[in-house]
Amino acid sequence: MIGKKENANKQFLSVATASTGGTYYPMGVGLANVWSTHLKDRGIQVTGQSSAGSIENIYLMQQNEAQLSILQSLLAVEAYEGVRNFEGKPEKNLRSISMLWPNVEHFVLMNDKVKTGTLDDIRATSFSVGPQASGTEQSTIIILKGVNLTKKEITPEYLGYGDTVSAMRDGRLDGGALPAGVPASAVTDMYASGVNAKLLEVTDKQLDDINHIANSWFRFEIPAIPTLAKQKK
Question: Considering its fold, how many domains does the chain have in total?
C-alpha cells in the first residue's frame, strides 16, 4: 500500500531518443538518470526510450507518450515552422532547452565502391538512409538531393545504426548514413570489427548546394581518433 501511495505522488517523464547504435540513446538515458537523481526529492522520475528518431519523437510528444526528446535541429525547425515533413502543421508549443552536441553526418561506404571519396560515390550503391520516419532518413534525403541524388539512383535500405554496420560487415550493404556525435559508436564499431569502409568527404560545392535546400549544416573536421586509424584523412 505504501508503494502505491509513493507511485501516486510521483511524476513519470520519458525522454524520446533514437536507435541504440547512435548518440541520442545513451545521451538520453544518461540525462534521464541525472534528472531522476537530482529531482528525486520532487517525486520526478525520468526514463530514456529508444525510437525511430526525431520525427517520431515529435509525434510522441504530441501524443504525450514522451514529454522530452532529443531532436535534430533540422527537424525541430521544420516542426516549429510547419514546413516540409510538417507542412501546414506548425508545432508552436515546441521549446528548446539546450544544444547538446554537433550532429556530424557520417556517410560510410565500402572501399570497393569508393571512387572520388566524396558523396558522389553513393550513386548506384545499396545504401541505408536510416529507419523510416527518422531524422536520419529525412536529413539523408536532403543531403542526397543536394548532390543530385534521389532514392531512385540508389538501392535504399531503412536500417538503424547497428544493423547498417552489421549488413556492411556481412556483405549485404554498400554503405549508410550514420549521423551522430563524435565518436559515433556505430562508426568506431565498424572500424574496430574490420569492415573495409571509408568515411566520405563533402566538397565545398556540395555543402553549398545542400545548404541551399535547408541551411542547417556547417563543416566539421573529425579529430584524430585511435579507432579510426584506418581512415588517414
Answer: 2
Which of 18-27, 35-44, 199-208, 214-223 has the lowest average pLDDT? 18-27
Give the span between the Cα atoms of 218 and 156, in whole angstroms.
26
**CB atoms inside a 10 Å sphere around CB 165:** 27
Helix (H) or strand (E) holding 195: none
123: exposed, middle or buried (C-beta count within 10 Å: 0-12, 13-18, 19+)? middle
CA distance 68 to 28: 9
Rg, the chain, Cα only: 19
Angle between helix axes 73-81 and 54-62 (nearest 10 degrees) is: 40
Tens-place pLDDT, residues 82-111: 998 899 999 999 999 999 988 899 999 999
Tens of pLDDT, residue by residue over 20-65, are 877 889 999 999 999 999 999 999 999 999 998 888 999 999 999 9
Paired residues of 12 in beta bridges: 45
Give the cell for residue 76. 525541430
199 plus 128 within the same structural domain: yes
Please check whether residues 77 and 115 belong to one and the same domain: no
Asked if residues 196 and 110 have their Cβ atoms less than 8 Å apart, the reply is yes
Q: So what's the pLDDT on residue 3? A: 38
120: containing domain: 107-213
* CATH code of 188's domain: 3.40.190.10
User: Taking the model in full, what pTM does it have?
Assistant: 0.77
